[in-house]
Write a sequence for this structure.
């Protein structure tokens, strides 16, 4: 049986992954080390030791490059000794000496000058030479920049260097200072490096651990600074009590924790282990740190050891076993029964089934996952206690939603001591958390193991359809079920044609880059991979001809967009006269959601926790609720500002139980005049709703709800996704001309300048004809899609939109007659191309003039390529609908004469990377930092 990418079960779940680097390095950027300190020397790794002040290595200059420049047992020497004490404290809990070493980096001159350039160089050097932890014992009241033309990092700031270290996987441990004060009122770097208010580096680093100084009893020392926003925890600082030494101690512990965690662990995950295992300790200053606790090396080691790695990049929790973790409630139960795992594909070791966690209600809360990302959650069960069905029943909820109802393991497995698994696809919430709760209905709930792996297969467990099936035993769901033993079969020999297809609804809009097919012996010789927005009109993104074998086929470097994907087979293999797939896997990325994280408003909100932003935070568990029962009418709306005028192609709505029966999807350029892109009446389901090929344009998108469902007198959405492209206004930088001007104060260029207060005026009352025009040279030829005109009171009643290649010969692509209002006039669905565009006016209103505040033109270069469709959709004939109502209006929009058309804009794939980040610290108000008179102070 072939190994399946993205859907294979985990092997060897209780074995830690082999790390690529055998030694974990802690870089100490300080004044140097004492090579006569017999406690420190065994921990030194001088392979990459560096003098960042003189820019020379230990390999080139010998001991002089790293000897402490302050005193024989000076600052750097003590810091190194305290780092070793931190390593030793964690090693004592571990029961063995970890492979953790110190990389000394000097940032200080022989004259004791703490050099900011050397400090920044040192951080980059450490990051580039394998440091997992970087200790900094310096405070600056500003964020210094590197001034070194010979450096590739010239001009970069200290925070830039810290952010760079995060990309290399390094935790930066730093000191808060020794002024016996709360630093949340005075800006200090590096402690403020992870504060987005004061750090201009983007993304803001999340790899900073700030350690206050405590004595052996856990009390703040007399000199230590603190801060409930910018200080993480307290750490032992030795008899001298300075924060340089507490940060060093914390760096030593952090190095050991990093060495214990799986390959690929992020710096924020290491910090989370340290922060989440502190010993709570109140202080005389009150709220003194983020955690309110003191570093606990033993607890941190125990937590790190429970982070189990799996070969696929995920991990396994052995429920009730020695590596059980993340649980809340329940009791560990063991058995000597031997469990039969033969029914499972790639099962975990049988010993996993001899331990379980049980209880009437318990949960597992797994943190530090990638926010919003998809995960494959595998739950393993066995029944070793009850001897009949209907004796143990329980529900399984994931992030608060019931995913498995009334599970009877005995009945599902077919008896006692038999293993059974359940596969789920789960989205981590906005904080990177998945919570799995077990709730007993009869007896106690029970689970043996929880396996969590990143889910790269977009098709896993998604709804499927096919042209035909051999029988229900070979239904289409069996090709996306995480099993290579089950399969879909078309039963093609029973059909009247050799054409057959298999389709998956991805339940969102994706950019597809790869497909993996695992053919049974009944493979297709000729077939196509196709995508679709609506499941009706298909675009071919890959054609395969002459396939001559069963088994796995990987189709990579694909480029297709849509909600649906299918394999469209046209020729069966010799002797089989059938199509059959063990597996159908799809790889790619969710299309760019233009609305994610953008500013949202609503007509009303039930409460502050159910505010509009809950529908745009990439978290399927948070939501907006209108609290409609508290309002005086049934009309409500939810609107999002995309930040720029955009082509609006597709929309997805994920309703809570309080769905709208009647509603409209609308767009607007200005947030006042709305165009209806889709209208729904008689909706009777809370299932996700999809709207494809909307051909809309606007900066604002809203849902206007006019009738609630029959059960809930409310409107509530978990998600409101908008897909499309941000557009550029082609009139930016264009040259404008006109038939006439009222005066130089109303020149044509004023219709395309940045100001909405200036305007072009033709002064038509001074002309002998009602004909007047304004034209624009775009500088190159474009396929036009939309024009947005903002008429002054002197609007044109009748006008034409025209294009030209030479500015002389014009072609009309839109005629408007009977316009009766000033303000924003959106003309979408244009079909025409040209370098020159003009508005040709032929009938005035009562003002006897033509005047425009603003003209915007949107389209694509004529060199853009498009993809041909297998079954191209006809041009849409439904009218666009516009209103001049404010966003609070409740009346249904009235139709206009502007026709919609098939989408002329070409999608663009946007590659993005998502990282599991530590939650940002809250913002605080503080005075503008004052530049220090010298680069920094040792702490």
């Amino acid at each position: 049986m072939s190994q399946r990418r993205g859907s294979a079960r985990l092997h060897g779940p209780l074995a830690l992954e082999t790390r690529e680097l055998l030694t974990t390095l802690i870089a100490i950027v300080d004044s140097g080390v004492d090579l006569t300190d017999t406690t420190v020397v065994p921990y030194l790794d001088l392979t990459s030791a560096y003098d960042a002040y003189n820019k020379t290595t230990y390999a080139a200059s010998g001991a002089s490059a790293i000897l402490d420049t302050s005193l024989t047992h000076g600052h750097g020497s003590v810091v190194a000794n305290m780092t070793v004490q931190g390593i030793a404290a964690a090693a004592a809990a571990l029961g063995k000496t970890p492979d953790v070493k110190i990389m000394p980096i000097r940032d200080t001159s022989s004259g004791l000058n703490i050099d900011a350039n050397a400090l920044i160089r040192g951080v980059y050097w450490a990051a580039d030479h394998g440091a997992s932890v970087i200790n900094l014992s310096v405070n600056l009241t500003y964020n210094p920049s590197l001034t070194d033309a010979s450096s590739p990092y010239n001009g970069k700031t200290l925070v830039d260097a810290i952010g760079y270290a995060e990309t290399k996987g390094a935790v930066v441990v730093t000191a808060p200072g020794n002024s016996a004060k709360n630093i949340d009122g005075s800006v200090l770097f590096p402690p403020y490096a992870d504060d987005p208010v004061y750090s201009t580096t983007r993304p803001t680093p999340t790899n900073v651990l700030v350690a206050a100084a405590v004595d052996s009893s856990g009390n703040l020392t007399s000199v230590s600074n603190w801060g409930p926003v910018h200080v993480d925890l307290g750490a032992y600082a030795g008899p001298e009590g300075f924060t340089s030494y507490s940060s060093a101690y914390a760096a030593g512990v952090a190095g050991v924790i990093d060495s214990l965690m799986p390959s690929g662990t992020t710096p924020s995950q290491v910090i989370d282990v340290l922060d989440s295992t502190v010993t709570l300790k109140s202080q005389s200053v009150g709220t003194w740190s983020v955690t309110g606790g003191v570093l606990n090396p033993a607890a941190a080691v125990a937590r790190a050891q429970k982070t189990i790695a799996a070969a696929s990049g995920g991990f396994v929790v052995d429920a009730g076993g020695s590596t059980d973790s993340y649980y809340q409630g329940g009791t560990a139960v063991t058995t000597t029964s031997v469990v039969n795992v033969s029914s499972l594909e790639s099962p975990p070791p049988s010993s996993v089934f001899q331990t379980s966690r049980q209880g009437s209600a318990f949960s597992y809360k797994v943190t530090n996952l990638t926010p919003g990302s998809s995960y494959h959650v595998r739950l393993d069960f066995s029944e070793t206690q009850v001897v009949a069905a209907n004796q143990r029943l329980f529900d399984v909820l994931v992030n608060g939603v019931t995913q498995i109802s009334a599970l009877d393991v005995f009945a599902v497995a077919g008896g006692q001591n038999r293993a059974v698994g359940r596969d789920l696809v789960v989205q981590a919430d906005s904080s990177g958390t998945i919570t799995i709760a077990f709730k007993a209905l009869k007896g106690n709930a029970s689970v043996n193991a929880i396996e969590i792996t990143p889910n790269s297969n977009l098709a896993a467990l998604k709804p499927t359809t096919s042209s035909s099936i051999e029988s229900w035993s070979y239904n289409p769901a069996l090709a996306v079920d995480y099993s290579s033993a089950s399969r879909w079969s078309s039963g093609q020999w029973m059909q009247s044609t050799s054409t057959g297809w298999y389709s998956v609804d991805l339940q969102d809009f994706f950019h597809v880059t790869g497909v993996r097919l695992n053919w049974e012996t009944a493979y297709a010789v000729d077939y196509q991979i196709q995508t679709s927005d609506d499941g009706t009109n298909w675009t071919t993104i890959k054609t395969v001809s002459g396939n001559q074998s069963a088994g796995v086929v990987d189709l990579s470097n694909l480029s297709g967009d849509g909600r649906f994907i299918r394999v469209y087979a046209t020729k069966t293999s010799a002797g089989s006269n059938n199509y059959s797939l063990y597996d159908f896997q799809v790889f790619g990325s969710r299309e760019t959601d233009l609305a994610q994280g953008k500013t949202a408003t609503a007509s009303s909100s039930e409460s502050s926790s159910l505010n509009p932003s809950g529908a745009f935070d990439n978290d399927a568990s948070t939501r907006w609720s209108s609290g409609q029962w508290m309002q005086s009418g049934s009309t409500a709306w939810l609107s999002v500002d995309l930040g720029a005028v955009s082509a609006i192609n597709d929309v997805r709505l994920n309703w809570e139980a309080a769905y709208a029966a009647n509603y409209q999807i609308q767009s607007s350029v200005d947030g006042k005049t709305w165009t209806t892109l889709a209208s729904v009446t008689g909706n009777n389901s809370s299932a996700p709703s999809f709207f494809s090929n909307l051909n809309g344009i606007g900066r604002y998108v809203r849902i206007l709800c006019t009738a609630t469902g029959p059960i809930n007198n409310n409107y509530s959405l978990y998600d409101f996704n908008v897909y499309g492209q941000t557009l550029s206004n082609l009139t930016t930088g264009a040259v404008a001309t006109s038939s006439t001007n009222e005066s130089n104060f109303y020149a044509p260029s004023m219709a395309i300048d940045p100001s909405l207060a200036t305007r072009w005026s033709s002064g038509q009352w001074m002309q002998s004809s009602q004909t007047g025009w304004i034209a624009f040279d775009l500088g190159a030829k474009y396929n036009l899609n939309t024009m947005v005109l903002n008429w002054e009171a002197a609007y044109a009643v009748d006008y034409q939109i025209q294009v030209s290649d030479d500015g002389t010969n014009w072609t009309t692509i839109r005629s408007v007659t009977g316009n009766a209002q000033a303000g924003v006039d959106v003309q979408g669905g244009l079909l025409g191309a040209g370098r020159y565009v003009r508005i040709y006016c032929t009938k005035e209103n009562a003002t006897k003039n033509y005047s425009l505040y603003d003209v915007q033109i949107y389209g694509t270069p004529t060199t853009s390529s498009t993809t041909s469709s297998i079954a191209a959709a006809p041009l849409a004939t439904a009218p666009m609908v516009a209103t001049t109502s404010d966003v609070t209006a409740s009346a249904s929009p009235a139709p206009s004469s502007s026709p919609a058309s098939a989408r002329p804009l070409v999608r663009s794939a946007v590659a993005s990377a998502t990282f599991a980040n530590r939650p940002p610290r809250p913002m605080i108000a503080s005075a503008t930092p004052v530049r220090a008179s010298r680069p920094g102070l040792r702490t």
The helical segments are 58-61, 75-94, 116-128, 158-167, 243-260, 267-276, 297-305, 409-413.
